[in-house]
Amino acid sequence: MFVDECVIKVFAGDGGRGCISFRREKYEPWGGPNGGDGGRGGDVVLVGDYNTNNLVDFKFKPHWKAGRGEHGQGKDCNGRDGAPAVLRLPLGTVVTDEATGRVVAELVADGERIELRRGGNGGWGNTHFKTSTNRAPRRANAGQPGETGVYRLVLKSIADVGLVGFPNAGKSSLMNAITNARPKTAPYPFTTLQPQIGVMENPDPIRGGRRLMIADIPGLIEGANEDRGLGHRFLRHIERCGLLLLMIDMAGTDGRDPRDDYRHLLNELKLHDKALLRKPRLVAANKMDLPEAAANLAAFRRRHKVPIIRISCLTREGLDKLGKDLVRQVIRAARKD
């Protein structure tokens, strides 16, 4: 199950109470105060985790509570601090305060730690209230309450390459062919119902290997930016990708015109976020093993003057070249940043 958005409520721990206590020993029945302080409540901490890829754990456990501090004890014994509540979130998670709508955190690095809510301070024991005129204070502080909040978690996947295209263009077949992901493939639209993240290994005996993360976005349709189809809520997963790979069914197997498909894809990306059009992109002309593809490719080249890589996921034509071009473009984009 893939979950990329949910709401959670967090509770930092309350501070422990301070203690009222007096030293009582043989031959010294009126010893001074020795009440210990209460322990501090645990914080709510967010941690970026490379090995976590979705928010399913938070969908079914929406409440997270840190431990409260222990109460102070006699003999100047301070209470133990409460245990923190540690939330391990996938990289690319944006945390928004539901009350204000303000983005309060964004996790983009493995091991990155952000204090979301702070635990309450422990109360003082009566030792702190001893004065020259009050040698036996019977006063101690209660611990402060921990902070609480309601937050929306939204996952924007971090990948090197974002794979976009219309339904049945062959994106899942390409993911099966060049990455370790195994999405469902079938000869009908919308076989992919959730984003898939795959790893492409590209060994190079001279320069060394290069690993690429590729995000496969469920098929878009016209009007995706207006909440139509399956792809509208998943466009955010390509916002952080360094390179876009536009997959075009060059054979037009569903009666579509590849030239119009390319134009509509660019329009949907533009309407979602104009910045997406400024990202470097490659066009993969798929299904070149079918007889109609050659004529459609010639017409496509006449209308759109863009670099095109001919591929066929069925025969594996052009997949090696595609992998090398992806690595080259990703490295080039990283150097520009």
Structure characterization notes:
Strands 10-11-9-12-13-14 form a 6-stranded mixed sheet, with helices on both faces. The chain folds into 2 domains: 151 residues, GTP1/OBG domain (Spo0b-associated Gtp-binding Protein, Chain: A, Distorted Sandwich); 176 residues, 3-Layer(aba) Sandwich (Rossmann fold), CATH 3.40.50.300. The chain is rod-shaped and about 105 Å long. It is α/β, with parallel strands linked by helices. The longest helix is centred in the C-terminal third of the chain and has 18 residues. About 6% of the residues have low confidence. It is built from 5 helices and 14 strands. Helix 4 links the parallel strand 13 and strand 14.
Shape: rod-shaped
Proportion of residues in β-strands: 15-25%
Query: Uncertain regions: pLDDT < 50 for 5+ in a row?
Result: 183-193, 223-231
Series of secondary-structure elements, N-terminal to C-terminal: EEHEEEEEEEHEEEHEHEH
Helix content: 10-25%
Main sheet: strands, sense, barrel: 6 strands, mixed
Q: Helix- and strand-based class?
A: alpha/beta
Task: State the CATH topology of the largest domain.
Answer: Rossmann fold
In total, the number of domains comes to 2
Provide the gyration radius in Å.
Answer: 29 Å
Q: What is the highest CATH level, the class of the largest domain?
A: Alpha Beta
Distance between the termini: 34 Å
Strand segment tally? 14
Widest sheet: strand order?
A: 10-11-9-12-13-14
CATH superfamily of the largest domain: P-loop containing nucleotide triphosphate hydrolases
